[in-house]
Amino acid sequence: GGAPARPYLSGLNPEQRDAVESLEGPLLVLAGAGTGKTRVLTTRIAHILSTGRAYPSQILAVTFTNKAAREMKERIHSMVGDAVEGMPWLGTFHSIGVRILRRHCELVGLKSGFTILDTDDQIRLLKQLLAAENIDEKRWPARLLAATIDGWKNRGLSPDLVQPGEGATFANGRGQMLYAAYQARLKALNAVDFGDLLLEGIRLFREAPDVLADYHRRFKYLLVDEYQDTNVAQYLWLRLLAQGSRNVCCVGDDDQSIYGWRGAEVDNILRFESDFPGAKVIRLERNYRSTGHILAAASHLIAHNAGRLGKTLFSEGVEGEKVRVTGAWDSGEEARAVGEEIETLQRAGHALSQIAILVRASFQMREFEDRFVTLGMPYRVIGGPRFYERAEIRDALAYLRCVQSASDDLAFERIVNVPKRGIGDATLKQIHDLARAAALPLQEAARTLTESEELKPKVRATLRGLVQSFDRWRVQARQVPHTELAEVVLDESGYTEMWQKDRSAEATGRLENLKELVRSMEPFENLQGFLEHISLVMDADKGAGEDAVQVMTLHSAKGLEFDTVYLPGWEEGLFPHQRALDEQGKAGLEEERRLAYVGLTRARLSARVYFASNRRIHGLWNSTLPSRFLDELPDPHVQVEESKGGFGWGGSSYGARTSGESRFDRTTPFASTYDTPGWQRAQAARTGSGNSSSGGFSERGRPFGRGAGGAPVIEG
Ligand code: ATP
Ligand code: MG
């Protein structure tokens, strides 16, 4: 025919090609991991542009992260060249949402240049509201209210739409009233929060039909990646926009829905067909990413979930390596083993950027990061800060630095009002002025101030309390091991409590990180030694712009792929995560399993799962049970090994397993926990013996078995 050659179409399989070329009308591509969904979306955009069906500015394309948006733009560029210049509507729901809102802000009662509140501002505002209503913040923390309001916003509910009873638990049913008051306050401040970016957009479209009609004319094609993780608000927003051209294409995989805890609703996939009658559904079944064993292992694992739409997946590539499962003695050995393997891979010419470590919880990163710093191995943390750069870790370190040195002004400034204790900017300025005038460090200036009449009595008392705390901690620093000191400081300062009261989704992770911080201090002689190590770590090459190992959570790994994927920490309680089980029961377990599926399917050539028999959290040894997900990996596709350190899981051998029997010893109760006094730990760390060896510095001296419960005792 006369059609011009379209090189980007060649190489697609028939179903993919159908999905690319079915441009008119609603289309749902429902397909498993690595089947080319994202590639279909990208090629579809290229096809729209190169056939002249729309200008770049007439395409709305939603990705899950900004990074994914950039990558998509690059890929399109490689297919159609400069035709892709200026795709202004390619981005995340939030980035597109704010763009639309800025153009019409006056229609929803906002003035141009409105601000977007961050979480801190949001909490401050809610605290004021709670105080104004005489609601006891100790019983009803502002952060819980923030989480409740976010939940409503995720479900597309403005204050007037909240049904009585929904979230009624907050302050005995006053949540809805507080929500309304909060929205009114935001308006008065000419501000929105993150959730409003879509919620106000929905209101805009509903209340200003001419504006919506304008967007209907503008957006000739709409596309959404990772559709299974949209929440109701995103869905409603999208549906309003898509009802214009109805040329909407969503791609997703119900087995990869991993944001239920943040309000994502996999039911949106089912709704699609009823909201867009006549929608075409295309299934892609060939996986192009992973080798045979990896794909088979992942498919078997996910088959344990009940609530699935179900689909077939096959690969035509080589069988490749089996999924490897390795038991390590503890998390220190796990990190050492992985580090060694990566060095070997590197020597064999593998690119570090093709190696990823995917953790369930961010605290797990610490041990790997320390290891990489020791090895001089470049690494990059994706989708979040590096461990020691996390806000809660920096806060905790600032406290410790203040104890170590009374003249560390930066540290003092960071924590003087964290947690909030009523020492505001005005007081801080007074401290600064005095410090400058008298050439004193801030801590000393603060002390002097509390001895004068210059401060209001309440502020003076608070500040004096803080100064005296530091004096006390400095005395204790000479008496107790530094790990214990750290615990004391974090407790007595109210810092730990601040996060314990926090009900936001990240709070658990932050508390885990704080515990991990204390744990990371163990191998060091004293506080000074530890803080010196930290400054080295902070200073280490951040791996930016060079070939570096990629470290991230499983959640941030969605949509990505790597040659080699390490999956550490497959232990009951950590993965599946205890909180998911406690809070959501079976649904929580299934979401965790989907996360495991996401993890395995990131690997092209090699997937390496680890579990540690012992994990020490907050100074407590936990004899762990191997994750139930390990038993759900099918025999023919798995190879079980012990780590080279020789302190493996010691369970029944893989070969001897009869059907139905666990491959791993899972008879030990999870919480067989025993404590080692802090001083003993510290001493052991110094001498390299006794009840401490998990710090990663001493190789020998592991007197522990697996605790109570009849599990095998492992010889050190
Ligand atoms: P996920 O569910 O993990 O997001 P996906 O379905 O979006 O996966 P892609 O990332 O688009 O899958 O594709 C997976 C890999 O397979 C990519 O490297 C992609 O380039 C490759 N691929 C997809 N389709 C083909 C094809 N027809 N021929 C060769 N390679 C392909
Ligand atoms: Mg994808």
UniProtKB/TrEMBL annotation:
One of its GO terms (cellular component) is cytosol. Coiled coil: none annotated. Signal peptide: none annotated. It holds the Pfam family UvrD_C. Its EC number is 5.6.2.4. Has both ATPase and helicase activities. Unwinds DNA duplexes with 3' to 5' polarity with respect to the bound strand and initiates unwinding most effectively when a single-stranded region is present. Involved in the post-incision events of nucleotide excision repair and methyl-directed mismatch repair. This is DNA 3'-5' helicase. It comes from Aquabacter spiritensis.
